[in-house]
Write a structure and sequence with these properties.
Layout (H helix, E strand, L loop, with lengths): L19 H4 L19 H4 L10 H12 L25 H11 L5 H18 L6 H10 L1 H8 L8 H6 L2 H4 L9 H8 L15 H17 L3 H13 L9 H13 L7 H9 L2 H6 L13 H10 L9 H11 L2 E3 L5 E3 L9 E3 L7 E3 L16 H11 L1 H15 L6 H13 L4 H9 L17 H12 L17 H16 L23 H16 L16 H12 L6 H14 L6 H12 L3 H4 L2
Helix pairs in contact: 3-4, 6-7, 11-13, 11-22, 14-18, 16-17, 19-20, 19-21, 20-21, 22-24, 24-27, 25-27
């Protein structure tokens, strides 16, 4: 047996080396972390291979020597929690451990390294999804950060059948609305004695409410978390207010048929499908635009909001010309979108975008390597050109970076992502891969630098607390017709509306703002704190949920709650404040259950939870 410096133990596994395999104690303390669920604590508690109560350079150097001799670590140990030297998310190796050991000899803190890596894991879960739950945390620890991101970028690899089964009542139950055509929904909910159903007759509140409920359930329960976030992102980017007009009936089809299949595909396809969707045609009046009777609403928003942006990029003449190019789309009484050549303006149109040679639409203009004859109509040539334009590449790259990384990106970062966009003709998966595997994203710099939008906050609360809560402002996993569920959903949807984000009902074409400043008002923060408090109160006695019993002291209560609700950890000053609250501010007469409830509520109201 080969002991390390000051190492004293039995070679329990008989491999001839006295190491962490032998020294890690059997799992007993729920406040510690068991990353792989094998019943033993991992590196942040079990890295102390010489059993002296301190994880330091001696321990790390011993593990590194074990690896360089050809050994392998069979528990999570340091290689699951210490980032690799290149920061890429791969499992570390002997060289990484030796480097860490060298750092520790200069008084580096291994515990800090462990906490930083966990915080980075939580950062990834919060930006590529709606926060960690038991599945996603286990998955990111099993795969490593980089492989977890790559899996999320290919959602077809992820079995989401449990979530699909969860929302089946919205497809097949007595209140089902998902997957139904607009005429069928109109016949189901409208007063047909009034001829056609409009936004003035029996407005389809149930249809929109079902969409909102499914969106929230998707955020909480879908294992395809990045897909859920991107669907929200593109719905917001191509916003349609579902509280009015045909959009109230067509929003579901808009989401499922026009956007969802293209979330990680071609931006050109997104533009094309969005343009010819029933919901958008009605919302921005494109159906009313035809040769000789132009409506500029859609053309203006297409350029200003959906693609190149309006910063000295185009002028009013360009808006008029683009409007002429787009004429032809409409729909009839059957609510089926069609392109009618008789409505299209066949004259020559010239569109002059800044830094671009004029686009002359004369019946011969193509796009990329495709001739005009490869397109169904002239408008699709325009959409192809807009999707590939450098200004579109810059603007949408910056907007994606703002959502996933930082609202103040460096010009170099934007330029790098933009070049991927241009090189791939706007392939969203390639662009997202560049963003999510970037050093800028996989570093501590963007951690907790954004205020959570109300939807992100509410979903992350539900994921942090876990399933099965009941009561006001909580999510019930009961049948969709259950009166308690309806009451609960009405409450949480009302909470989101009060905080400024009524789902599917952003009135302006700009959608809900992404900027943190829009969600950082004092009143908004207070309501978020109250929401967390109500959710905790709905749990009843919360102690069994977190393995707390009568023998658990205050310090361990805080440890267990922090591990469960904020695995990324608290800042030292925040932890001190929460500890003081638990130890001093609560009345001595408070029951242990009340102390746990109040402490959990405080943790969910800290900046560490309200930010992501």
């Amino acid at each position: 047996m080969t002991p390390g410096p000051n190492l004293s133990c039995d070679d329990a596994d008989g491999d001839g080396v006295c190491d962490a395999e032998d020294n890690c104690p059997d799992w007993s303390n729920p406040s510690q972390r068991d990353a792989n669920g094998d019943g033993r604590g991992d590196a942040c508690t079990c890295g102390d291979v010489n059993g002296n109560g301190v994880v330091n350079a001696v321990d790390v150097a011993h593990l590194a020597r074990h690896l360089t001799r050809g050994g392998a670590l069979h528990t999570p140990d340091l290689c699951d929690v210490v980032p690799s030297a290149d920061g890429g998310g791969r499992k570390c190796n002997a060289g990484d451990l030796l480097g860490l050991a060298a750092g520790l000899t200069r008084n580096a803190d291994l515990g800090s390294a462990c906490r930083s890596h966990r915080r980075l894991e939580e950062h990834v879960l919060l930006r590529t999804g709606y926060g960690g739950d038991s599945f996603s945390r286990a998955r990111i620890q099993e795969l490593g950060i980089e492989e977890y991101i790559l899996e999320q970028l290919d959602p077809t690899r992820i079995d989401d059948s449990a979530f699909e089964a969860l929302i089946e009542p919205y497809r097949a139950g007595s209140f089902a609305t998902l997957g139904k055509s607009v005429p069928l929904l109109e016949s189901q909910f409208c007063n047909l004695a009034n001829a056609r159903c409009t936004d003035h007759i029996d407005r389809p509140d149930r249809v929109v409410a079902n969409l909102a409920e499914v969106k929230f359930l998707r955020a909480i329960h879908s294992r395809r978390q990045l897909e859920s976030v991107l669907l929200d992102f593109w719905l917001n980017h191509f916003n349609v207010d579902a509280s009015q007009g045909i959009a109230a009936w067509a929003e579901g089809a808009y989401e499922d048929a026009s956007l969802r299949p293209y979330l990680l595909g071609s931006f050109e396809d997104l533009l094309v499908e969005m343009t010819r969707s029933l919901a958008m045609l009605d919302y921005l009046d494109l159906r009313r635009s035809r040769a000789g009777n132009l409506n500029e609403n859609f053309a203006r928003e297409l350029m200003e909001l959906h693609s190149i942006g309006n910063v000295a990029t185009f002028d009013e003449i360009d808006v008029q010309e683009v409007t002429r190019v787009l004429t032809g789309y409409t729909y009839g009484e059957d609510r089926v979108v069609e392109y009618r050549a008789s409505r299209h303006d066949d004259g020559v149109k010239i569109v002059s975008i800044e830094d671009t040679d004029p686009w002359i639409f004369d019946g011969t203009l193509g796009c990329g390597n495709r001739p005009y004859t490869a397109f169904e109509n002239e408008s699709e040539v325009l959409l192809c050109l807009l999707a590939r334009h450098p200004k579109t590449a810059t603007r949408i790259s910056r907007k994606l970076i703002a959502r996933f990384v930082t609202e103040t990106p460096s010009p170099a970062f934007v330029s790098r992502v933009r070049e991927v966009w241009l090189a791939t003709d706007g392939d969203i998966e390639s662009v997202m891969r560049e963003i999510l595997l970037s050093t800028e994203f996989l570093s501590m710099a963007p951690v907790r630098n954004k205020v959570k939008r109300p939807l992100v906050l509410a979903a992350s609360l539900a994921r942090a607390l876990g399933p099965g809560t009941e009561g006001r402002s909580s999510i019930l996993l009961a049948p969709v017709t259950d009166a308690r569920r309806v009451t609960s959903f009405n409450s949480i949807m009302g909470d989101l509306a009060t905080m400024g984000e009524p789902l599917y009902q952003a009135a302006p074409p700009t959608g809900f703002p992404e900027a943190s400043a829009a969600w950082a008002s004092a009143g908004g923060v207070l309501f978020r704190i109250n929401l967390a408090d109500r959710l905790i109160a709905a749990l009843g006695d919360p102690r069994p949920r977190w393995g707390i019993d009568a023998d658990t002291n205050d310090a361990n209560i805080l440890d267990r709650l922090e591990a469960a609700l904020l695995p990324g950890g608290l800042q030292a000053e925040t932890r001190e404040a929460v500890q003081a609250f638990l130890s001093s501010d609560l009345p001595t007469s408070a029951t242990q259950g009340e102390r746990v409830r109040q402490t959990a509520s405080v943790l969910l109201s800290t900046p560490e939870f309200l930010l992501h």
